[in-house]
Design brief:
It is a single chain. It is built from 12 helices and 4 strands; from the N terminus they run H-E-H-E-H-E-H-H-E-H-H-H-H-H-H-H. It is mostly helical. The protein has 2 domains: about 5-190, Rossmann fold, CATH 3.40.50.620; about 195-245. Strands 3-2-1-4 form a 4-stranded parallel β-sheet, with helices on both faces. Helix 1 (about 5-20) crosses helix 2 (about 35-45) and helix 2 packs across helix 7 (about 160-170). The longest helix is centred in the middle third of the chain and has 23 residues, at about 100-125. The mean pLDDT is about 90.
């Protein structure tokens, strides 16, 4: 499928879902990264600049000023309303009362950001536009009820490498397209370093698993030229994070209606 066709499908999806919800538009968390930049660009085309609000939510102890600046520049380029809210003091109130641990603190950061996105969505009768892509969704590289929470997921059926292609088509600034992806949850964090594999390789394996059969035997993949350890690694990520992609399990009670 052509990248222009993918863009048109997503634009129509956003437009239709916002209309169905009788919403006044969308709120998007802007990180200065490729996913949020592509998502907000598509939303602006779908809804018009007046219906899109960008929230830039840095933690001054962690966030790179360059990312903040690029999120602001993109907002100005799209001519959408945006607001910068420094979450450092909010986060400090939590950490004053909690034991500190890097991963838990990072997840808390993502959840603080999401509460603010939903606050403004409630305030202005808008929907929260998620920015997770298919690669992140499949391997579970997102914070449950943090950046994984949203009302719409326009990019969740295209891989990270496709998001970058879409960004080129949409004329997202090259400085954003070329930078390493990061959730910005702690200093010097990059997605590929944390995952342990580059997205190009991740996407190649995910595409094969998705297009053939996720239960396909690893030895068959190796015959196709895939590294056995890499395939096992990705399949393990998919399985151990499956709970993130499902709604909470409900205990079913077999009531007797007679």
């Amino acid at each position: 499928m052509r990248i222009s066709d993918i863009a048109n499908i997503i634009i129509e999806f956003i437009r239709l879902e916002v209309s169905r919800a009788q919403s006044h538009g969308v709120v998007v968390g802007l990180s200065g990264g490729v996913d949020s930049s592509v998502a907000v660009s598509l939303a602006t085309q779908a809804l018009g600049k007046k219906s899109v609000l960008g929230l830039i939510l840095p933690d001054r102890k962690v966030s790179d000023q360059k990312d903040i600046d690029e999120a602001v520049e993109l907002s100005k380029l799209l001519d959408i309303k945006y607001q910068i809210i420094d979450i450092t003091d909010i986060k400090q109130k939590y950490t004053d009362l909690l034991p500190l641990e890097k991963i838990s603190l990072g997840n808390l950061t993502a959840r603080i950001r999401m509460t603010l996105l939903y606050y403004y969505a409630n305030l202005y009768n808008k929907l929260v536009l998620g920015t997770s892509d298919k690669s992140e969704m499949m391997i579970g590289y997102f914070t449950k009820f943090g950046d994984g929470a949203s009302d719409l997921l326009p990019l969740a059926d295209i891989y990270k490498t496709q998001v970058r292609e879409l960004g080129m088509y949409l004329n997202v600034p090259k400085t954003i397209l070329l930078k390493k992806s990061t959730p910005s949850l702690w200093v010097n964090q990059t997605a590929e370093n944390e995952i342990g594999m580059e997205y190009k390789k991740i996407d190649t394996i995910l595409k094969y698993l998705n297009e053939n059969n996720s239960a396909i035997r690893e030895k068959d993949l190796v015959k196709k030229g895939y590294n056995k350890n890499d395939v096992a690694f990705i399949k393990n990520l998919i399985m151990k994070n499956i709970h993130k992609r499902r709604t909470p399990k409900i205990c079913s009670i077999p009531f007797n209606n007679s």
